[in-house]
Amino acid sequence: MPVTKMEIKSRTSYANGQMFGDAGAYEQLDGVFHFAVDPKNSANETISDLDLAPTDSDGLVRFSSDFRILQPVDTKLGNRRILMDIPNRGKQLAIRNINSGPEQSPDAPIDPGNGFLMREGYAIVWCAWQHDVPDVPGMLRVNVPDAVTSGGPVSGKLVVTFQLNAPSLVEFLSSRNHRPYSASDVSEQAALMTVQEHEDGPEQIIPRDQWSFARLENGQLVPDDSHVHLTTGFEPGKVYQVIYTTTGAPVVGLGMLATRDSVAFLQNASSREGNPLAGSIDHSYTFGVSQSGRYLRLFLYLGLNFDEEGRKVFDGFIPHVAGGKMGEFNNRFAQPSSQATRSSNSLFPFSDAAQTDPETGLTDGLLLRLSSLGDLPKVMYTHTPSEYWAGHGSLMHTDLTGSRDLDLPNEVRIYVFAGSQHALPTFPPADDDADGFHGQHSFSVVDYRGLLRAALTNLDHWVTTGAAPPPSQYPRLDDGTAVLPQGVAETFECIPGVKLPNPMRRFTRLDFGPDPRVPTKTPAVIGKVFPHLVSAVDGDANEVAGISMPLITVPLATHAGWNLRHQDIGGGGQVLSTGGASGGTLRGSTIPFAATRKERESTGDPRQSIDERYASKEQYLELVKQAAEEQIGNRYLLQEDLGSVLDQAAQLYDYMTSRVAEIHSAAV
User: Fold this and answer.
1) Interatomic CA distance for residues 284 and 377, integer angstroms
2) Per-residue pLDDT at 434
C-alpha cells in the first residue's frame, strides 16, 4: 500500500465537544501521510515526470502530505462515508460552502457553521496536494521531490502572468504569494516581459533594459531571482507576462496520488496499520471548489480513481464552480494557483463524452480513460453563470462549433445555479473586497449553499440506493436557453448604468507542443477561438436556465454571473474575473430594482419597481415560500433549508426597500 505511515501529530476535541445529532461529538486529527509509490505501476503512468523522480532502494518514489480529519469520536456513530474536501491553495472550503460556515483565517479553529456534514455523520478529510503553498499556519502542503536527469536538475522556460489592482514597481513571480520558480540567471538577456491592455489583447514587448529581476530594499534596487522590477512601474488593469528560464522541476503530479492513496488507505487499511477510520467506511465522495474543482476534473481525466491495486477510490464527485477547465496540476513547472487563461488550465477536452475538435482533429473526453479502466463514479458538476461568462462554461455540454448540445453520460449531472456568482455571496451588498477588487456593480447576494447540501444528499442516495437524482439544469441550444452573449445585450443595457463586459472573454485553442505535460512551446501558440454561450434572460435580465433560487424566481433585483472591473483598479469594463491573470475571485452582480415606481420612472429603468411587484413584505415572503417549496419538491433544496431561505429573503427585502439607492450601480 502506498501509504507507509499515517503520522498523527495531534488529536483534539472539536468544537468544544459540541454534539452533532446522532453522530455525537467530533474530534480533529492533524498530521502527515507518508507515501512510497511505484513509478512503474500502470495506475501511475499519467503522472508527469514521475520517471524522473528519485527512487529509494526499492525503486519507489517517496513524498509526504499534510492532512486534517474531522470524524466522530465514536466512529460507529458516523454514516460510514468519507467526504474528502480537496484543499484550495492549502485551505479547507467544504465547511464554508456546504455548512454555510463563516470565512476564517487558515489557522483559526474550524467553525462548524450549521453543522450539516457533522449531523449527517461524515468523516471529513483534507489531504494536501499542492507543492507551492506558502508557510502559513493552518495551510496544508505536499512535499514532493524534484525531477532529475543524468545532467542534474531540470531547467526550462516558464511564463508568469499577473494583473494588478494598484500601481507597483515590483511584483513577486508567483500567484497569491505562493512559492515561486526562481530565475536561473537574473541577468538572462533572453528573458522577456510583455504587456497587454487585456488578457486577449496584442502583446507589446517591454525593452529588457527597462526591467530587471530585482526588488527594492530601502529604496535601492537589489538583484532578486523571485521578483521583477519595472522602471516605469506596473499599471493597474494591464496584463503582464514574464518569460524566463528556471531550474528545478517539482514532480507536482504526486499531489494527485496523495489524494488517491490517502483515501484508499482510510477505506482499506486496518487499525493495526494506524488507520483511525478502520472498518467504518463504506463509501467515499469528494468535493472541490474552483481551483480544487478543476483539480477533480483533471483527476477524472487522468483516470486516477483506481489505486495501485486496482481498487475504486471515490464513488462520487462534486466539482464545484470549475466550469470547463482543468489546471496546472500535473505538468512540468506547473503553477497550480495561476488562473491565466493562456495556460494548461484551458486545454481540450472540456466535456465528459468524447468528441473530436474539428480544428485540430484531436478526439478526447474527460471520462474516456477512466471508462476504459472500470466502473465510472457518479459525478455532479455544480456551477454558476460566472463560469459561462468567463468563456468556458458552455464547453462542458455543447460541441466545439457551439451548434449542438452534447449527450451527457448516465453517470453525470450538471447543475447551474442561476443568477449566482463564482464566489460565495456578499451581504450586505458591497462592490469591493479586502483584496482590492472593485466592481462597477454590487457583488451578487444570491446564496446557493442550500443547493449544494441537496446535491450531496442526492449524490449519496444515487450511490447507495441507485435512486436517480433530479435532472440536469443548464443552458441548452435545443430549447433556446443557451445564447451568444450578444443575445442578452439589449436587455441588460436597457438598465440604467449597465453595460456588458468589453472586451468579452475569449477562450482559445493553445498549442504547448506534443505533450502539454512537458511543454516545448513556451508561451503556447494561440489558435482559433472556442464558442462561448451563456444563459438567455427574461425581461428583468434574470437568467432562465439552471436551478433558480427563490431570489431569482421572486426577484428584488437583476442577478448576473458577471461584474466589471471598476476604472479605479484599471481595466475598466473588463470582466472581474478569476479566469484571468488577476488572481481575484470571479464576481457576479446584484443590480437592484427601484423601490418605487416614481424612482423607476425618474431613471428610465424598464424593470418594474418593488412596490409595483409586491403589495407588502408579507406577500413577497409568501411567494418566496411557494418558490422554495417547489424546489424542495423537485429535490433541488432540502426541507431543512426552507427557514434559512425565508430569513435571507426577509433581510434582502428590508435592505432593498430601505437602502436601495445606496447600492445602485456606480456610474462609471
Assistant:
1) 10
2) 83
- Whether the pLDDT of residue 485 is over 70: the answer is yes
Q: What are phi and psi of 641, to 5 degrees?
A: -95, 0
Q: Residue 667's pLDDT band (boundaries 50, 70, 90)?
A: very low
- State pTM to two decimals: 0.96
Q: Do residues 98 and 449 touch, judged by C-beta distance below 8 A?
A: yes
Task: Give the start-to-end residue ranges of the domains of the chain.
Answer: 3-145+251-415+448-465, 155-247
**Count of other CB atoms within 10 angstroms of residue 387:** 28
DSSP structure string for 96-119: HHHS-PPP--TTSPPP-TT-HHHH
Phi, psi angle pair for 370, to nearest 5°: -60, -40
Cell of 432: 469591493
* Interatomic CA distance for residues 296 and 317, integer angstroms: 8
Q: What is the DSSP string of 230-246?
A: EEEEEPTT-EEEEEEEE
Domain 3-145+251-415+448-465 has CATH 3.40.50: yes
Question: pLDDT category, 503, cuts 50, 70, 90?
Answer: confident
Euclidean distance between CA atoms 324 and 379, whole angstroms: 14
DSSP letters spanning 320-363: ES-TT---SSSSTT--TT---SSSGGGPSP-SSS-EE-TTT--E
- Determine which helix (DSSP H) or strand (DSSP E) holds 37, and give its type and residue range: strand 26-37
Q: Give yes or no for a contact between 339 and 578, defined as CB atoms under 8 angstroms apart.
A: yes
